[in-house]
Amino acid sequence: MEFKDKDAIYLQIAAYVSENILLGKWLPDQKIPSTRDLAIELEVNPNTVIRSYEFLQSQEVVVNKRGLGIFVAADGPQKVKAYRKERFIQQQMPEFFRNIYLLDIDIKDLEAMYEKYRLAIAQPKTDPNK
Predict the structure, then answer these.
(1) Residues pairing with 54 in the sheet
(2) How far is CA 80 from CA 6, 9, 10, 106, 115, in A?
(3) Which of 14, 41, 86, 102 could disulfide-pair with 52, CB 3.0 to 4.6 Å?
């Protein structure tokens, strides 16, 4: 993982965990990597991962099952999506709208670009029984 100067490292790690949840790599009620394992994987201090997990616990995205580890909350994906959507709307949308206005980009062009992007990343769902 490559860290950026813009946000605190613990928030970037929380975003990494959140993305894994949204992508379905870590499912609701599934155990996620331990503090130590994630710290080794990301090459950071374990205290930074602890801070990330505490932040995600405060957002009710993950839960600590004492003695068992950290697990994705049953409604963790919904919590992540709600938090990230609100943050995106408040922090990035104003600049986005300003840029499309200044660059005179038509909303229909944006819609077409988004649809092309969405189709490119969509993965066909396969039936596990086949």
Answers:
(1) none
(2) 20, 18, 16, 30, 23
(3) 14
State pLDDT tens for residues 12-55: 999 999 999 999 999 999 999 999 999 999 999 999 999 999 99
* pTM exceeding the 0.70 threshold for the entire prediction: yes
* Rg from Cα positions in the chain: 18
Cα–Cα distance for residue pair 32/35, rounded to 1 Å: 9
Under a CB-based contact definition with an 8 Å cutoff, are residues 91 and 111 in contact? no
- Residue 47 structure tokens: 């205290």
Q: What is the mean pLDDT of residues 70-80?
A: 97
61 near 18, Cβ under 8 Å?
yes
